[in-house]
Design brief:
It is a single chain. This protein has 653 residues and is mainly α. It contains 25 helices and no strands. It is globular and about 65 Å long. The C terminus is likely disordered.
Length: 653
């Protein structure tokens, strides 16, 4: 009875907050950010408790009795059973890159309402389902990648098309994420120092937890967080010191350093750098977002951006396209992300200890990311529109005023954070300013605005780099798999020459795109790539569910798949047209050809995969051929039934 009352109250409060944010209730009044936090928190909780449980019990039939590949194929490098909370940290850190922060910040140019609705609906009914279904499919297939699953379940043609599409997409995605870090840290010695220190701190944590004090998660967490906070504080003394030139790096130097980091992180064993760094950054991220939510609750800032702006019809200075489809591909990871499928079929299924952890890790992490996106949207929309555009574009103050967005406090904000924030496009700087404004509004925190600003930059960079290192490793898996058809040793597990060669190919590719691109060219390209991959992954998930004779349940992936394919194919066509419109002004002929070929190839490969999936569905549904075998009691026979399991209190890293 108490539970029913609790969930009834959550539903009532969530509905009330939703009505206020959408203008159903008091449409003429400005919206307080507190209502956005309340609506998102309540609706995500309800979604996890009821829809997530439905997927776990009815659609996927999760069971802790099945052996996971972390035990079956344990090698200490990629396959390693990991405590659920540590793994949640790794998974969340890997999926929550720049997308949930930068995407909503850029999409705020359309107004606060479209982003709010899409992140709420998309994360609940699309993104969380996508992540959970792909993770389950991979766990039950020995941690196989999405490309391998597509080949096995859809067909040879669709599998090959999906493999090439995924490789194209992940490289473009890593370029888009990495570019945001480069723009944020360029000539920022304080932020660069703090991020650089997170690497040796993570290495120490891995050695401490695995070699010195095995399994002492509490101890290593306290040490790691303390050291990271110390790095943020000490970073204040880097500007003006002899170390300033060491950490005040140019754009090209940052690209080189990030490429070196991605290469090293993709080669080292997961327990040494990847997992402890992701664990450290995840709980730092969750703590920061929680603190940001407390700040919103305490100071209750008013949303300054209108619900809808005139740029919903196109012509915006941040994102040039119309609301549909460009708002959806811009928000990207904040609602649904194909990149998550690479993590859910990459590192995470190789470390998960029990199927019972899948809902928390797969479904729950995506909803937390959705909440992070809401906080990023708030940070963008509490800025006055003129100040928001002054930071995120290179337009002059007079040009912005003529568009109806006069400048108000941007110079004052620059003085408060001790950094010139004008004309810093990309979303990272405006997000840091918005976060610093909220956190600086807490009692006694006003004088610490420069610390909050640089802390926010570190927070963003941690998000992004944890995706870069994991994404590079996942892409390395894929290159090794594909390279194995040409030279078999490349696909051999644990063969270091193959690991090094494949890592160099991946890192060199995304570093080149960062070097030659800008936020206006790379981010839409990243958005299309990311959402196309999500559509492919949802199609593969639909195939897996249909194969298990659960046709009616396949709608949970089929409906969002249709929407994603329609949205991204539309965006692909409009993006190619926009590239050629920019030739001679914002883009050279050569780069227009390069970007058009990339978008066109991804769309064509996705179409081939879709057609192959439709053919497969026809065979499964109409001809009833190729359905999964069933045991005498009528249940589907999954692989890896029974075997060693990991107890809930057993700690692994």
């Amino acid at each position: 009875m108490i539970k029913k009352i609790f969930w009834g109250v959550i539903c009532l409060v969530g509905a009330m907050a939703f009505a206020v944010v959408t203008g159903i209730w008091s449409p003429t009044e400005k919206v307080n950010a507190l209502w956005i936090v309340t609506a998102a928190g309540c609706i995500y909780l309800i979604t996890y408790r009821f829809y997530g449980a439905f997927l776990a019990a009815k659609v996927l039939v999760l069971s802790g009795d099945r052996q996971t590949p972390a035990f079956k194929m344990r090698d200490g490098i990629d396959y390693h059973p990991t405590n659920r909370y540590v793994l949640f940290g790794h998974h969340f850190a890997a999926i929550a890159g720049a997308g949930p922060l930068i995407g909503p910040m850029l999409a705020a140019q359309f107004g606060y309402l479209p982003g709010f609705l899409w992140m709420l609906i998309g994360a609940s009914l699309g993104g969380a389902v996508h992540d959970m279904v792909v993770l389950t499919a991979s766990v039950r297939r020995n941690g196989r990648s999405l490309a391998q699953i597509a080949k096995d379940e859809v067909g040879q043609i669709g599998g090959v098309a999906a493999s090439f599409a995924i490789l194209f997409i992940i490289i473009v995605a890593l370029a888009g994420l990495g570019l945001a870090v480069v723009n944020a840290l360029s000539h920022s010695p304080w932020g660069t120092f703090t991020i650089a220190m997170s690497i040796p701190i993570a290495l120490f944590m891995g050695l401490y937890l695995y070699k010195i004090r095995y399994g002492k998660v509490g101890e290593v967490t306290l040490i790691g967080v303390s050291l990271l906070i110390a790095a943020v504080i000490y970073g204040h003394f880097i500007p003006g010191s002899p170390l300033e030139n060491v950490f005040s790096l140019s754009r090209n130097t940052l690209i080189l350093c990030m490429a070196m980091y991605g290469l090293i992180a993709s080669i080292l064993p997961v327990w040494m750098l990847l997992c402890p760094r992701d664990y450290l950054s995840t709980y730092m991220k969750i703590g920061t977002i929680s603190l940001l939510a407390i700040g919103v609750i305490f100071i209750a800032p008013t949303i300054q951006m209108p619900a809808l702006t005139k740029f919903i019809h196109g012509g915006g200075p941040v994102i040039p396209g119309k609301l549909f489809p460009f708002m959806f591909i811009t928000i990207a990871c904040g609602a649904i992300s194909g990149f998550h499928a690479l993590i859910s079929s990459g590192t995470t299924p190789k470390m998960i200890s029990s199927e019972n952890d899948i809902q928390m890790i797969g479904f729950g992490a995506m909803l937390v990311e959705g909440f992070v996106s809401m906080m990023a949207l708030i940070a963008a929309c509490i800025l006055l529109p003129g100040d928001y555009f002054a930071i995120n574009t290179t337009l002059s103050f007079d040009q912005l005023a003529s568009m109806g967005f006069p400048i108000d406090r941007v110079k004052e904000l620059s003085e408060m954070v001790q950094v010139n924030v004008v004309h810093r496009p990309g979303g990272a700087v405006s997000l840091a300013v918005g976060m610093a404004s909220i956190l600086g509004g807490l009692p006694g925190m006003r004088g610490l605005m420069p610390y909050w600003y640089n802390f926010a930059l570190m927070f963003e960079a941690l998000f992004i780099l944890t995706t870069v290192d994991t994404g590079t490793r996942v892409a390395r898996f894929l290159v090794q798999e594909m390279g194995g058809f040409i030279y078999k040793p490349l696909a051999r597990q644990g063969w270091y020459p193959g690991i090094l060669i494949s890592s160099l190919v991946v890192v060199g590719s995304w570093a080149f795109l960062i070097y030659t691109g800008t936020i206006k060219t790379i981010w839409p390209l990243f958005g299309v790539a990311n959402q196309l991959l999500a559509a492919i992954a949802l199609g593969v998930g639909t195939t897996v569910i249909i194969k298990e004779s659960k046709l009616k349940y396949s709608l949970v992936t089929f409906i969002p798949m249709v929407f994603m394919f329609v949205t991204t194919f539309t965006a692909s066509v409009e993006l190619i047209i926009s590239y050629w419109d920019k030739v001679g002004t914002e883009m050279t002929y050569g780069f227009a050809v390069l970007h058009s070929v990339l978008v066109g190839m991804m769309a064509i490969l996705a179409m081939v995969a879709l057609l192959n999936m439709i053919q497969r569905w026809y065979v499964l549904i109409i001809k009833k051929e190729g359905l999964a075998p069933r045991s005498p009691n009528g249940k589907v026979d999954y692989p890896n039934v029974a075997g060693e399991t990991c107890q809930g209190d057993e700690i692994h890293l």
